[in-house]
Amino acid sequence: MIRDIAPVHHPIVDRVHAARTAQQLAVGPRIAKPSQIIKQEAIIEATSRMPAKPARQIKLRKQPSVARHRINIAAVSLAVLVFGGYLTYLNMPQLSTRVAASQAGINAQYPSYHPSGYSLSGPVAFNNGVVSMKFAANASPQDYTVTQSRSNWDSSAVLENYIQPKAGERYTTTQSNGLTIYTYDKCAAWVNGGILYTIDGSANLTPEQIQHIAISM
Q1: What number does CATH give the domain 93-215?
Q2: Average pLDDT over residues 139-161
Q3: Which end of the chain has fewer CB atoms < 10 Å from its terminal CB, N or C?
């Protein structure tokens, strides 16, 4: 009778199995990871290896403050008011003359020329058909008044009815820009467009100055 011989373990093989068993015990049992987690770990690892981009610096536009905006508006408004006031000041004599002429009912004019050192003194006066304005010297008591009144005289009538009764034969006649200007002492008279113009006062006006006044109206 033949007996079966039990398998004999080789010493080297036993050592290999023992080593594998010890390694598995040291590492521990492996746990299989879900595919979703494996993908996320791969994405995180790939992202960490990419070079970091510098952050964009967004420049914010500085908005002007409300207070500064209001200050600018106030400054512009003040400049407009000052400029408007200056223009009104320059045009005040002309405006006053227009108002007086409208009230008097005649086409009165403000002379654009006046001798150096003289300026309008007081308001432009008016009456029915008459407008008058006084100019005074800035550094002396001298003055002269320009009067404009409605009239149907011509130059001959001015000489006969106004000049000769006041000056007799002591007058001078000047022709300028179609005007016949009569001067005597410190006074003058002429007619133009149905208006009689006269100058009188204490100012020592020269014939040339009177002529400039006449042709500037």
Answers
A1: 3.30.200
A2: 96
A3: N
Q: What rounded mean pLDDT belongs to the chain?
A: 80
Q: Is the pLDDT of residue 137 over 60?
A: yes
Q: Is the pLDDT of residue 161 over 70?
A: yes
Indicate the SS3 state at residue 8: coil
Q: How many helices (H) and strands (E) does the chain have?
A: 6, 8
Alpha helices in the chain (DSSP H): 11-27, 35-49, 66-104, 155-158, 164-167, 207-215
CA distances from 123 to 139, 140, 214 (A): 20, 20, 21
In whole angstroms, give the CA distance from residue 88 to residue 82.
Answer: 10
Map tokens 């200056």 to a residue. 86
pLDDT at 73: 73
How far CA 164 is from CA of 151, 155, 191, 209, in Å, comes to 17, 12, 15, 22
* Separation of alpha carbons 19 and 37, rounded Å: 32
Is the distance from CB of 190 to CB of 154 less than 8 angstroms? no
What is the SS3 assignment for 37? helix
CA dist 206 and 119 (Å) reads: 17
Q: Is the pLDDT of residue 10 over 60?
A: no
Strands 172-176 and 143-150: unpaired
Are the C-beta atoms of residues 208 and 166 closer than 8 Å to each other?
Answer: no
The set of residues, in sequence order, having a beta carbon less than 8 Å from that of 78 and lying 6+ positions away, is: none
Predicted structure pTM score: 0.59
pLDDT-derived band at 57, boundaries 50, 70, 90: low
